[in-house]
Amino acid sequence: MSDELVFYTNPMSRGRIIRWMLEEIGQPYTTKVVNWGENRSPEYLAVNPMGKVPTIVHGGTTVTECAAIIAYLADAFPQANLAPPVGSKLRGEYYRWLFFGAGPIEQAVSTKFLGVEPNEEQRAMVGFGSMKDVLDTLESALTGRDYLVGDSFTAADLYIASHLGWGMQFGTLEKRPVFEAYVARCTARPADKRAVEIDDALIAQAQPQAQAQPEPAE
Q1: CB–CB of 158/82 below 8 Å?
Q2: Which of 11, 109, 120, 182 could be cross-linked to 199 through a Cys-Cys bond (beta carbons 3.0 to 4.6 Å apart)?
Q3: What's the CA gap between 101 and 98, in Å, rounded?
Q4: Are the C-beta atoms of 205 and 13 separated by less than 8 Å?
């Protein structure tokens, strides 16, 4: 079986998160840009029936959903040291924060975007409680430390910093000094700078009408 790593993305989507992860692991990969409209083509739906990007195909394995892709890549390429050892206490913390991004943060941002704010009774029924609960929890975890898990950068930091950076830039998440310092620390990494350059170059090459279309985001 081929070990080829294929990355389906659009540079104006959450695929930018996975680009950063791919640059961190340092392995060869092939980029296939999914232009607007092509995400609903039979060819792409055969890869990802949801019609969303990003998606990766590694050998015969297809992985969708950003958190799942990040977790998979960290384990598939352990030499990048982006995840604590399996079974360790730090591994539990790593999973906690990786899926905190996929769960509470995603849910809180989505409901805010839709103009929905759960009342006190409804908060017991939703996975994130309230936006304040989510941000206060994350701020508490980051106060007085550089990274979320142990003393080193992990894939969980990559995912959470991506959420925070994007959210603070576009106003879906509150700017707080702890968050701004954390994002600056994480995005100073050379892999992120390479990833940004690659995706920004792809945007510059795109036709203006293509740029104006909504993203088929994960």
Answers
A1: yes
A2: 11
A3: 6
A4: no
Superfamily per CATH, domain 5-80+192-211: Glutaredoxin (3.40.30.10)
Determine how β-strand 55-58 pairs with β-strand 30-33: unpaired
Task: Find out whether the peptide bond into 54 is cis, omega within 30 degrees of 0.
Answer: yes
* 210 has a pLDDT exceeding 60: no
111: number of Cβ within 10 Å:
16
Taking only the tens place, the pLDDT of each residue in 153-192 is 999 999 999 999 999 999 999 999 999 999 999 999 999 9
User: Are the beta carbons of 84 and 149 closer than 8 angstroms?
Assistant: yes
Report d(CA 126, CA 115) in Å as an integer. 15
Angstrom CA distances, 17 to 2, 62, 115, 136, stand at 25, 17, 25, 23
CATH number of 89-152+154-188: 1.20.1050.10
Q: Which residues contact 116 (CB under 8 A, 6 or more apart)?
A: none
Residue written as tokens 């297809």? Answer: 62
